[in-house]
Amino acid sequence: MVSVARRYEGAGLGLLDLVQEGNLGLMRAVEGFDHEKGFKFSTYATWWIRQSIGRALADSSRTIRVPSHVREVYSLIDQSTDKLAAQLERQPTVEEIAELSGVSVERVALVHQHRRPLVSLSTPLDSDGDSELGDLIADDAAISPYESAAAALERRALVDQLRRLEEREEQVLRSRFGIDDHPMTLAEIGEKMGITRERVRQIEARALGKLRHPSVSRLWHEGQRAADAV
């Protein structure tokens, strides 16, 4: 997390603010993660962290004060974008965002233009979704030491929070997120623990509910600041 935030130093926000914004993205990732869709948690979380930091930087870079009614439109578009991205596992199109938010296509497009740094490489170039913006950019990409360090810090932060749960809750989420091995289905966890699939689902829901609680979010922030000091 700290390594990811440091990449954005000098772009308009201090490191502490960047880490805080990244933590908000990480919490969103915990809420929306579904391993059954085939994504690694670290990859999914990194997308949300960068999205959250990028959005905060774009907002902070505005030199003109934005009226409250305009901010409400931004918020509505943001919420719709996040909801669709979590459901579709990709960046939604302008048309999809407009349909869900009730904001006109023209206004959504204008907001996206104003927030150009937030455009994801996975943004569809057409309504069919066959081509993405990233297809136009060369891939030079082996995982950098920075990315490896970021993934390790994210994993450490998640593990620290899981330790605050009851033993069974921690065991279920560790298995679901694939922290100790590969991500497991509810049925696999149930067989491993000797309980029903439905019971595993209930334990998972209760545990995720605790992770979403504001007090846990505060503790998460404190844990990240402690990690930065190491």
Automatic annotation (TrEMBL):
Which SUPFAM superfamilies does this UniProt record tie to the protein?
A: Sigma2 domain of RNA polymerase sigma factors, Sigma3 and sigma4 domains of RNA polymerase sigma factors
* InterPro entries hit by this protein: RNA_pol_sigma-70_dom, RNA_pol_sigma70, RNA_pol_sigma70_r2, RNA_pol_sigma70_r3, RNA_pol_sigma70_r4, RNA_pol_sigma_r2, RNA_pol_sigma_r3/r4-like, Sigma-70_RNA_pol_init_factors
**Which CDD domains does the annotation name?**
Sigma70_r4
**Ranges where the RNA polymerase sigma-70 domain occurs:** 17-30, 185-211
* The keyword Transcription regulation appears for this protein: yes
Residue ranges annotated as coiled coil are 148-175
Task: Provide a Gene Ontology MF annotation, just one.
Answer: DNA binding
Q: Which UniProt keywords apply?
A: Coiled coil, DNA-binding, Sigma factor, Transcription, Transcription regulation
Q: Mind listing the GO biological process terms from this record?
A: DNA-templated transcription initiation
What Pfam family is a match, any one? Sigma70_r2
Q: What is this protein called?
A: Unannotated protein
